[in-house]
Structure formats: C-alpha cells, structure tokens
Amino acid sequence: MMRLKKIAKSKTFLVIIVLLAFIYLNNTSMFSKPISETPKLLAHRGLGQTFSMENIQNDTCTAERIYKPEHPYLENTLASMEVAFQNGADVVEFDVHETKDRQFAIFHDWTLDCRTNVQGVTKDYTMAELKKVDIGYGYTADNGKTYPFRGKGIGLMPSLTEVLDHFPNKPFLIDIKSSDPKEGELLAYHLAKLSLERQSQLTVYGGDEPIAALKEKLPDMRVMSKATMKSCLIPYIAVGWTGYMPQACHNTQLHIPEKIGPWLWGWPNKFLNRMDQANTRVIVVGGDGSDFSSGFDTPDDIKRLPADYSGWIWTNRIDRIAPLYKKDKD
C-alpha cells in the first residue's frame, strides 16, 4: 500500500514537472525572434509641449504646468504632426471632438477653457468659428508670469478632414474623447467615405460606447476600448500559457503599461509574436496603467524596456526618442 502511494506521488510530481516545463518553454522569449529590427514609435498628439504628471487629475489644466518650451509646436496641429513624421514617427495619435456643424475638431480637452481664449466645448462652435480660436492662449511655464504661445495659435485647430487630406497616406490613431455612442456613429459616417485602403491605415480608440457604435458601422476597422482590451486580455491571462489566442485578441490594438507587461504570458517577444500573428498591434505605455498618456520621453525611460523589445512605443517626445533608434539603424 505504501509503495502504491509512493508511485502515485512520484507520478503526480512528474506530471507537475512536465507541466511547468511546458509552460516555461511555451512562453519564454528565449527562442522567439523580435517582430522587427527596432521598435515602432507612436507620437502622442504629434509633437507638443510636455508637462509635469505629478498629482494630475482628469480636470487638471495641463497647459498651466508645461515645462520650459524647447520647441515651438503645439499638440494636435498639422505642424506638430508634420514634424513628428519628419522626426521618425510611425504613427501619430490625435484627439477628436464633435463640432456644432457635425464635423470633428482636432483638440484634446473636454472644454476649451484651459488652452484657448474662449470657453465652452467644441459643440458650441462651428469648425469655422473654432478656426478663429487661439489654441496657444493658456500655455504657461512659470505660473502665469508669461504666456509664450499666446497669439500664436490662431487658426491652428484643424478638422479631421484637413488632417486626412493633408496626410493622405500616413497612419493615425484617432482618439474619440466623448462617451456618446452617437459620436461614434458620426465618426464612422466620416470614415466610411474613405477608401478601404485608407481605412486600413487608421485605428480608432476611446470610450466603450462610441467605439462599439463605430465598430457596428465599420466592422473591419481596427478599434480599441477598455471593453475590447478586457475581452482580449482576461481570457489570454487565463489560458494564454497554452498558446491559445482568444478570438477577441485578433485585429485589435492593446496599450500595455510597462509594469503590467511582465505579467503577461510570453512577455515580451513571445507575446508580441502571438499578437502580431493575430494582426494585433501592441503599444507599450509608461507606468502602471493609472495614466495611459504616460510615455517614454527620455533616453532613461527607454532603458526601462526589455533590451530586445521590438513592439510599439508610446512617446510624447518623438524628437528625443526617434534618434535613439535611427542611430541603431545607421
């Protein structure tokens, strides 16, 4: 009887060892090749003024806490996007809000009060009226002693149509800021006018409701929301160790905080390869996920990534980060 128990225990132990070996070998990046020679770069809002993230809240006026300007560009403008691409951005992200005449203005904040010389929201104005607004009015790096961009931002707020016409072949990540499903439907209406090839160069992310509404109208569009992220990552965390790829992880986009990545099966290269085969783009963002706008903005930030990381990197300072990888290519 004792002998049988010993045999049973030894078999159980062997099964556990084999299972652990399988999990390790099936999820180690040791045998996985990088998906590209160097990471690809996403320029958040083009190239704009950066600011302190300390104690930041949803309603914090970030224009009032910018660092001393090192360049003349304001976020979400044609010029900021142009210089981002020139510096080496592979994709530029921008934000959209609906206007009074059912267009989309490229602007980040929920209200106009912080950055501009007018108050209210974009829906209070037509696109033509928003062209007269000074989007550089509220920026200050010294607690209001000086306003270096005041008077320089008039006419710089572009429309969605302007951006897509100005950059007919460039890829973009569009952030729909509203949680209103009707705005998702309206954005789908505008994007449906584009060719299928052009649509394939665009990704849309935002609140669950507008993204679901847009996806219903444009089922082939690559989209992302908290709901789509959860529908992919929760089952992946549960069974991804087997190599199984949940259907919700196909043809989507994932923003993975740097501190969460190491907890995902196969991070980094095995995970990136699995998602790449599923036509899903993985973008690493800074921090722990408390602020998905946190990026890799200095050479020291890049050192926090795995040495062989080959996915996408979110940055607010494409001018600083792109040269690090261009140098590698040279």
TrEMBL record:
<protein>
    <submittedName>
        <fullName>Glycerophosphodiester phosphodiesterase</fullName>
    </submittedName>
</protein>
<dbReference type="GO" id="GO:0008081">
    <property type="term" value="F:phosphoric diester hydrolase activity"/>
</dbReference>
<dbReference type="Pfam" id="PF03009">
    <property type="entry name" value="GDPD"/>
</dbReference>
<dbReference type="InterPro" id="IPR017946">
    <property type="entry name" value="PLC-like_Pdiesterase_TIM-brl"/>
</dbReference>
<dbReference type="InterPro" id="IPR030395">
    <property type="entry name" value="GP_PDE_dom"/>
</dbReference>
<dbReference type="GO" id="GO:0006629">
    <property type="term" value="P:lipid metabolic process"/>
</dbReference>
<feature type="domain" description="GP-PDE">
    <location>
        <begin position="59"/>
        <end position="325"/>
    </location>
</feature>
